[in-house]
């Protein structure tokens, strides 16, 4: 028995695109904007943390985070994200998408603010509390991430489902852009108020005292977009698919979806009971693996492979910019100037390389298809990364820095490719 036998599901699948769909994209998308901002802003502020808390007065180079501490600070949120996806994904099925979605939002706000506070001034206290709250921030992001896709897929109609989910995912690109933009603005304002000599002229005064406020403000601003959408999240009803299929309340599902879609939907409680009997099976059952085993392995493995490249590239790009000559050497700038220059390059690459790929996916995913976009993206990523890896010593010079930047900017094909489709496909295949 298919979903078309139930009026509420058929109504959702065939509903014309209307204002409520747009509102759902914005609400779910702002959650994704927050996720991206919170995950990637740490790559900007980690350089400041090194100068502030790990400087050696006798060294000829600015302070930087030790490798093991840097890896933990930048990566601990991703560990939390993995755990959060498993926990909140399970809770989303048990308690409802909307309820868990609201919980993740509140906790994200709290953890973003606490990440910026990071109580204390000693290196041990700051790094310890930062790691603690970044883990839990990642944990909440892990809940928000799959629920955004699930909610949008359960609201969308068949004809535009891929485009709608991809439009939610676009906000990841916007979040990355705002990481660079916000960091540029904050560092510029602080730099204007507190100019300082470069490190090679004065290794002490080159790290302005107000730098300690700059990195905290950048992290804490991650709470703002989540707060701005809280009211609208609270006003969203539970998705009709969850209410009907999992809760088994056809009357409530018909009422909720009929109200937001402005149509009349039949309740069909008896038909719903028959539908649940034919489609109710646990994830670890033989029936699930018979129906979705290949889908599960395929979506899981491609997402895993993509994330190694995507997150590895975006979280470590700050270390590549100076090597390429896109920013000045650390010795030639003060702390806030280094933050400003790094943010500017990150903003430019995100605006003209990363971001357009997301938007190309929205109109073309229904025309080209998920499979071909994903295949093309993986292929193009492999080609450009292979070239950068083989020719790294040649490209990572001042003379060839713009060629390297151009190749690096062709991460366009990660986003007009597997970074978008690995988000869309699971939400559709397991619907």
TrEMBL record:
Question: Which chemical reaction does it catalyze?
Answer: phosphate(in) + H(+)(in) = phosphate(out) + H(+)(out)
- Where does the secretion signal sit in this chain? none
* Location (main, coarse): membrane
Q: Name one GO molecular function term.
A: symporter activity
**GO terms for biological process, alphabetical:** phosphate ion transport
Q: Keywords in alphabetical order, please.
A: Membrane, Phosphate transport, Symport, Transmembrane, Transmembrane helix, Transport
Q: Domain named Major facilitator superfamily (MFS) profile: which ranges?
A: 24-431
Please tell me whether the keyword Membrane is annotated for this protein. yes
The record's SUPFAM superfamilies line, in alphabetical order, gives: MFS general substrate transporter
**What is this entry's stated membrane topology?**
Multi-pass membrane protein
* Membrane-spanning residues: 24-49, 69-91, 103-121, 133-152, 164-193, 213-232, 345-365, 371-390, 402-425
Transport among keywords = yes
Can you name this protein?
A: Major facilitator superfamily (MFS) profile domain-containing protein
Upper classification of the organism:
Eukaryota, Viridiplantae, Streptophyta, Embryophyta, Tracheophyta
